[in-house]
Structures are given as C-alpha cells and as structure tokens.
Amino acid sequence: MHFRPADGNSFCRTRNRRIVYGIWQPTGEDLVVSRRGDQAFEVHCHGGNSACSAILSSLADSNVRQVSPAELIRAFENPWTVSTQLALTQATTARTAKLLLHQLGILPESIRKIGELTRTDQVHAAIEQLERMLGWSDFGIQLTKPRSVVLCGQPNVGKSSLANAMIGFQRAIVHDVAGTTRDVVSQLTAIDGWPVELKDTAGLRQATDTIEAIGIEKARTEIELASLSICVFDHSQAWTRQDQDLLESIVPDLVVFNKTDLASMYSSHPDRPGGMQTSVKTGRGIEHMIDCVGRLLVPELPAPGQAYPVTEAQRLKLADFLDRLRSPQQVDPKEISELLVDIE
Ligand SMILES: Nc1nc2c(ncn2[C@@H]2O[C@H](COP(=O)(O)OP(=O)(O)OP(=O)(O)O)[C@@H](O)[C@H]2O)c(=O)[nH]1
Ligand SMILES: [Mg+2]
Asked: pTM for the whole thing?
C-alpha cells in the first residue's frame, strides 16, 4: 500500500469512514484517505491535475485499473447512489454541493419506494411521485451545469465594467472607445451560490467591420440561449429610438441603467422603461442587482425532502419508467419495477 498515515498508525486497522491524513509515498503528495468498505477507499488530494495524474499513474504501476464513471456505476449495487455521488463530485459551489448531498441521502430511497409502490399495485401513487420528481429535474440537472447569464446592450454603456464588477476582477478590456468588446467573453462565477457562466458581449449596433459584425451575431445567439439576459443602458444618455428597438428585439429578463453617478437630464423620458440602477464607478446598486439576478435565476426551491433527478441519465430513466406506468398496454408492474434498478 502506498499510503502512510501521518499519525504513524497502520491504515489497515482504520475503521470505515474515518478520514485519515497522510502521505502518498511514491509521489510525496499530502492527501486524505477514507475507507468506504472492505474494498473501497476514497482518496482526496490537492494541487490540481498534476497531483491527481501522479497518484493515478503510481496506482497504474501497481496494476490498479482505471475505470470510466459508467463502468463504476454498473459495478455498484445501487447505481442511483453512485450516479448521485458522481454528480456531487461535479459541484462547484457549497450551495449546490449541499443540495446534492441531500439528494444522495434521499434519492436512492425514493427510487426504492417507487419500485415498492409499483410492485404492490399502487401505480397511481408511484405516478404521482414520479411526476413530482420530474418537475424538479431541470433544477437538479442544473446543479452541476453553470447557468448562462448574458450582459448585452449598445456599445460603451458599461457591460464589461459591470461583468468585471460582478466577477470581482478585471478581465474584459474596458475602454472609452465604443466597440471595445468584439467577441463573447465568458467567465465562470457564482451568484447566490448558483454556478453561473457570465457572458459579456459585443455592443449591439450597426457593425463597422466584419469582426465586429461576427461578435454582434454571436451576442444575439448567446442571448437566445441564455438562462437570463440583462440589457444594459446608459443612464446619463437620452432614451433613443435605437434603445427602444433594442429593448423590443431582445425582451431581456432584466433592464439595468448604468452610470448613475453621472448627471442625467433624461431619466424621465416617457418611453424609458423601469430598471435597476447601477454605477460601476461608485459601486452603487451592484449588490442589489446581483441579488436580483440570483432570485431570477432560481425563483423557487424544492421543499426539503423532495427527491429529484440530478443527471440527464437519471431523468431519462424516470421519464421512461413513468411512460411505461401510464401506457395503456401496461406490462406487469411487478416486472417493470426491475427497470428502475439500472442506469446507463
Ligand atoms: N462614470 C461612469 N463610467 C462608467 C461606468 N461604467 C463604465 N464606465 C465607463 O464607460 C466606458 C465604457 O465601459 P465598458 O465597460 O467598456 O463598456 P461596454 O458596454 O463593455 O462597451 P463595448 O465593449 O464597447 O460595447 C469606460 O470608460 C468605463 O470606464 C459607470 O458606472 N460610471
Ligand atoms: Mg465591452
């Protein structure tokens, strides 16, 4: 065995689930190991991909075979537990990890109960539970996938400045010259604990060259695909026909008037819509806007205790099972309850 506990005790006598800190002897890495069963161990290291690769290659040298997640799922008794565990390893925020951990505790048991209901001729109750679970499947699957939030608007209104303020550091180039951002600049972040891919786009106007035109085209595609679109306007400028056209063509989820630190003679224009007010320069309104984005992204949470699928394969399995239960030429429920056991 390559692992040497730091306390000098032998790892062989360690009881299940105890977390033991020590050294991986072949590579000298610090890590923690926890026994999860007679033949199962969890190894956690730090230091990024190179530390993981070094540990994996020393295991390969000792004839340990690496398997794909799918193979691992098939090898275990309860694939629902394993596939939820795998989803948990993909969590990037504490909030999503907590929700996935909760599902790990309740999802396999809910599946067992649905199988039980089906076997005992309570098909109606099984259908009801499946419908409720599937109602939260988008939410569950998105726990491990960032939601895309797109900032769009005319050139120079402060989209890149707002994106930087939301992320907390300078990434996109910010410049006085309109048309500075010419492509979609994406950055992974978290808003209210939800993983988000924040996309700063090229200013939407009649392009002056081909590169800008491509950037604008990409911006429009991103807006269509986004979970949430934020259209930014310059608070200090007059409300124009172009602003109105932009607003009507995008129909954004959120309207933001930026640069409120600058004096404006135009804020009472009759056509000007309501919206959030921000100033990147002074920081005013930014936190409030971020809160609002968080609430729009996830307006409602499942009740504690509500199980739901957290991977696409789980969703498909449940949807397929529900179809079979509803089917008029229904097969014997006792037979099909077996179908829930396996996940691809
Ligand atoms: N006074 C003031 N200036 C701001 C504010 N936000 C951004 N600016 C300035 O406005 C200019 C344009 O900002 P950007 O963030 O590059 O604007 P953009 O919308 O990304 O512009 P394009 O990429 O060209 O479409 C820069 O000079 C910023 O410093 C603000 O809240 N107040
Ligand atoms: Mg920009």
From this structure: 0.76
